[in-house]
Structures are given as structure tokens and as C-alpha cells.
Write a structure and sequence with these properties.
The protein is of the alpha+beta class. It has one domain. Helix content is about 45%, strand content about 15%. The strands form 2 sheets. Strands 3-4-5-6 form a 4-stranded antiparallel β-sheet. The longest helix has 21 residues. It is globular.
């Protein structure tokens, strides 16, 4: 993430209702990664070190309770399980769906746990922790209705807050970066 560009547009973010406090330190980020078992991708790490958004719907990584963060981390699996139970969600590549819900939920949990962790950003917008590099897409996750909401963190912020951070950055083939498991759920 281009910090100079972010600085130029911080006022626009504030007009969109985003409030910032001092960014997280490297030690705070490392502690969060150990505590929750994921790694912040480089662009999200840079963004959170620059300034920590603490407005409604953003995860206040400095002050959120463990329960709040764990609830956000469970949201994608909980939503998938809801749709397995109530909306006949079952991807073909998962094989034959078990008749018993507990077994179906266990398969879903195995799939989600093996996939990159979706790190909450704001509301039900998430960025995968793997690959741990710049340019991961941001997903909007509502049950099994998972869409790409931004080709990367910059693109997401532009989409979410309707201000210009400059041109959209997309992968070389005009598609968001493919993310293990999550891209197939999107498709």
C-alpha cells in the first residue's frame, strides 16, 4: 500500500466516517498474529501500522476483546454452515454431502481450517492471510455468498468508501489473485 497516497486521502476517509488512532506497532502486530494464529499480509500490516481505523465496523485490533475477534474469525465458517443447513449449500468438489448435519459441518470446518484464514477488516469484509504478500483480494463474506469486493486492499477501500485512491490495481490477467479454497467458493 502506498502510504503517500493514503496520507493524501486520509481527509477523504475521514469524510467517509473513518476515524483513525495511532497505528499498531510491530510488536502489537506480532502479538496479534501469535494470539490468533494468522499472519497479516504485507499491505494490511503496512496500513495498520500507518494508522489504525477504529470507526464502527472496523476491527479495533488494539482494544477488541478476544471474543470479538474470534467471533469475526468464525463468521465465514458459521455462515457456510448456516447455508449448508438452510439453503442446501454444498460445493461439488467436497464430494457427496453426508445426510447428518454434524458430519457435513465437520467437512466444512476441515475445508475452512485448511484454507487461508480470512482476516476481518471492516464489517463482513475480509482479506486472506495467505499468501502473506501484497495484493490479496478482499472478500465480502455473508454466509456462502462470498464475492470479491476489492482486487486488493487499495481497491477495496476505494469501493467501500467511494473515494479515489488512484487507479485500480488488478492482477496481470484482469482477475483478482486466486486464493486457495476461497476463489472456488466465489465461483
Amino acid at each position: 500500500m502506498d502510504l503517500e497516497r493514503l496520507k493524501k486521502h486520509q481527509k477523504a476517509l475521514a469524510r467517509s466516517g473513518v476515524r483513525f488512532v495511532d497505528g499498531l506497532t510491530a510488536a502489537e502486530l506480532s502479538d496479534l498474529e501469535v494470539r490468533y494464529g494468522f499472519s497479516f499480509p504485507t499491505d494490511l500490516r503496512t496500513f495498520l501500522m500507518f494508522a489504525l481505523p477504529v470507526s464502527d465496523r472496523f476491527v479495533d485490533w488494539r482494544n477488541a476483546t478476544t471474543e470479538q475477534v474470534n467471533d469475526s474469525l468464525r463468521w465465514p465458517l458459521d455462515g457456510i454452515c448456516f447455508d449448508i443447513e438452510h439453503n442446501d449449500f454444498w460445493p461439488n468438489d467436497w464430494g457427496t454431502r453426508p445426510d447428518a448435519l454434524p458430519q457435513a459441518f465437520a467437512i466444512a470446518a476441515q475445508r475452512v481450517q485448511a484454507a487461508p484464514t480470512l482476516i476481518p477488516i471492516c464489517g463482513h469484509r475480509y482479506i486472506p492471510d495467505r499468501p502473506c504478500e501484497v495484493g490479496n483480494p478482499v472478500f465480502s463474506v455473508y454466509q456462502s455468498d462470498i464475492i470479491v469486493y476489492g482486487y486488493n486492499l487499495d481497491d477495496y477501500l476505494q469501493n467501500e468508501f467511494s473515494y479515489s485512491l488512484g487507479g485500480r490495481s488488478r492482477s496481470a490477467n484482469g482477475q483478482p489473485k486466486e486464493i486457495e479454497f476461497w476463489t472456488s467458493v466465489v465461483q
